[in-house]
């Protein structure tokens, strides 16, 4: 069984294991869950095939890249010896139909180009690849040296040197594609794109699934779901946000136009066909959604970033507490605008769980953000 080295991003360490497991579950790939934790960001895994690794890299946000691991060593003398003992592994790459390059990727320490060139030349001198051409831009086979330095030691001690064949990058580029700066329609509380994609992986978003965000806002959580193939919808109680009207949350942009809408967001990313539009509705009213004839739910996924009061107030339909100076109408008008009342955080999260229990299909997934106040930060 081939061994692979995964290099993870050093951000969002708490999500490292859960996201990796979710992606493996999505593709029905098994791995040793005990190996992964939030303290390390380089891991060696055994997988049945290269295809499994390529599938994982096609979805994960927190894996930077992976290589098929040939060998490793504590220093370059030992590394050269180990590579030379197993030169037969390069036979399948040594033909005129393939190209190759050698790259050095230091982790934890910067290296100048002269040093990198010396490492590349020292390995390239004896690799049996005389029949294939060198391609420094788009090589079919990129043989990669990874230098892993211990950043906790003052003199940047070299922990390990890994050598193998580069497989691919993860999907970190999606956070650039979906950056908020270039998005047509955003709000004050639009979720960070990287976190939105991590959440999409946790709920196993995939083609053919139906997903909803009961607090859809400007659509920050459902855009990644659509990118991964889900049909998406949502509810929003704020009329202006639901209709994409009013003043822009961007400084100096003024009033929103037809170019600043939910639709414009999906059109920009080429996922408009997955957008089922959304409802101006109260998320606490679960009977809004009709169940299947057998009583099963209709949604495969529910995602939410509820307005828990820190950046956005929670609101639901209900009667406000009357104040003495209010003048009430003497008759009921034909055109009635429902009143809104406070939506306390405890009730809100219970309603989300109740909605999931009622409206999710069997094995459907719910993922929502919850405010946590660490004891060491409360003062």
TrEMBL record:
A single GO molecular function term of this UniProt record: methyltransferase activity
Statement: the UniProt record of this protein carries the keyword Zinc: no
Xref: CDD domains: AdoMet_MTases (cd02440)
Superkingdom per UniProt: Eukaryota
GO annotation, biological process: methylation
Boundaries of every tRNA (guanine(10)-N(2))-methyltransferase TRMT11 N-terminal domain copy: 3-170
GO terms for cellular component: cytoplasm
Alphabetized UniProt keyword annotations: Methyltransferase, Transferase
A Pfam entry, by short name: Tmrp11_N
Annotated protein name in UniProt: Glutathione peroxidase
Organism expressing this protein natively: Strongyloides stercoralis (Threadworm)
Source taxonomy: Eukaryota, Metazoa, Ecdysozoa, Nematoda, Chromadorea
């Amino acid at each position: 069984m081939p061994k692979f080295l995964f290099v993870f991003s050093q951000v969002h360490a708490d999500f490292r294991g859960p996201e990796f497991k979710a992606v493996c579950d999505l593709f029905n790939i098994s791995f040793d869950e005990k190996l992964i934790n939030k303290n390390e960001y380089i891991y060696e895994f055994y997988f049945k095939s290269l295809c499994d690794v390529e599938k994982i890299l096609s979805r994960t946000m927190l894996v930077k890249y992976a290589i098929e691991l040939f060998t490793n060593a504590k220093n370059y003398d030992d590394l050269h010896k180990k590579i030379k003992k197993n030169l037969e592994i390069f036979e399948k790459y040594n033909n005129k139909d393939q190209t190759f390059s050698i790259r050095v990727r230091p982790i934890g320490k910067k290296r100048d180009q002269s040093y990198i060139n010396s490492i590349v030349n020292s390995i390239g001198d004896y690799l049996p690849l005389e029949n294939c051409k060198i391609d420094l831009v788009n090589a079919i086979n990129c043989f990669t040296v990874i230098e892993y330095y211990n950043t906790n030691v003052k003199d940047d001690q070299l922990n390990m040197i890994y050598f193998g064949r580069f497989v691919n990058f993860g999907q970190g580029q999606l956070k650039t594609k979906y950056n908020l700066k270039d998005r047509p329609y955003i709000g004050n509380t639009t979720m960070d794109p990287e976190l939105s994609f991590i959440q999409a992986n946790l709920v196993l978003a995939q083609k053919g699934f139906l997903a909803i965000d009961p607090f859809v806002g400007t659509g920050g959580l459902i855009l990644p779901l659509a990118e991964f193939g889900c049909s998406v919808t949502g509810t929003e109680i704020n009329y202006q946000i639901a209709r994409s009207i009013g003043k822009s949350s961007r400084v100096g942009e003024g009033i929103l136009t037809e170019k600043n809408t939910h639709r414009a967001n999906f059109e920009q990313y080429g996922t408009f066909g997955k957008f089922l539009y959304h409802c101006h509705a109260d998320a606490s009213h679960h009977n809004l959604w009709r169940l299947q004839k057998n009583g099963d739910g209709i949604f495969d996924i529910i995602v939410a970033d509820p307005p828990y009061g820190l950046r956005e107030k929670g609101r639901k339909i209900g009667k406000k507490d009357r104040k003495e100076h209010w003048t009430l109408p003497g008759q009921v008008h034909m055109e009635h605008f429902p009143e809104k009342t406070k939506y306390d955080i405890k009730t809100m999260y219970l309603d989300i769980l109740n909605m999931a229990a009622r409206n999710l299909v069997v094995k459907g997934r719910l993922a929502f953000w919850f405010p946590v106040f660490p004891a060491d930060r409360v003062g």
